[in-house]
Amino acid sequence: MITSKILSKQKKINHGFFNRTGGKSSGIYKSLNCGPGSNDFKSKIEKNLKIVKNKINKKSKNIFLMHQMHSNKIIYIDKNFKFSKKKIKADAVITNQKKIPIAVLTADCVPILLYDKKKNMIAAIHAGWKGAYKDIIKKVIKFMLAKGCKEKNILAAIGPCIQVKSYNVKKDFLKRFLKKNKENKFFFKNIKNTIHFDLPNFIKSQLKSSKIIKIEVIKIDTFDGKNNFFSARRSLKLKHNDYGRNISIIMIN
Questions:
Q1: Do 91 and 135 sit in the same domain of this protein?
Q2: Hey, CA dihedral for 68, 71, 73, 74, is it positive or negative?
Q3: Which of 69, 74, 224, 252 is the most exposed place for a label (fewest CB within 10 A)?
Q4: CATH code of residue 239
Q5: For the chain, what is the domain count?
Q6: Quick one: average pLDDT of 207-235?
Q7: What range defines the domain where residue 156 resides?
Q8: pLDDT tens digits for 61-117?
Q9: Is the same domain home to 174 and 233?
Q10: Whether residue 119 is found in the same domain as residue 236
Q11: In angstroms, rounded to a whole number, what is the distance separating the alpha carbons of residues 226 and 209?
Q12: How far is CA 106 from CA 11, 121, 128, 151, 189, in A?
């Protein structure tokens, strides 16, 4: 489990960015696969989620997971929220409730954990390029501000994800981003005559444009096998028919 330095200083919350170490799954899912959307054995995934929950807080409720779909849809869990077994389709979750661990699943996309230390409100965001392009980060910040949070009090941790050196893209991908904003050219690099996209820096810029200044970027490349994270892109390269999911989690104590 990897932790953020700025979030670790906050005593009212627990959090963690988990790689694939320390779980029960085997084969291409070895070992801490937390993705119910994968074809791994459901019993193994449940055991893995329990391992993660116990690491965060043994007395907490079950981990709240969404049915992620690369959207800009958000969920807010307040005291009146009705929990059901059916997963809600969304890519960000915000709460001010204690002992409810909220989490996102990734396999190269960016996990973002937010905490307003004065309002005691947390958020977990799943941002691949599609969600980031659709401004999910700005939408979450706007929602938190509407609930009384202040930009100066929000701490942001950008977790392990695919880094620029591993993220080569096609020309039409670049064109899409330039069409939205010509200044997006800054987030594209030419490496060995191929176009590469700097997703974590693009996300950092979106946080900054929402006036968030306390930002930590954990520069760990999920594509690089030695870092021991699940990676959809690496699985595709290895011709695997599926891949596991990394979990990133935050909870108010």
A1: yes
A2: positive
A3: 69
A4: 3.60.140.10
A5: 2
A6: 97
A7: 5-163+200-252
A8: 899 999 999 999 999 999 999 998 889 999 999 999 999 999 999 999 999 999 999
A9: no
A10: yes
A11: 33
A12: 26, 22, 9, 26, 23
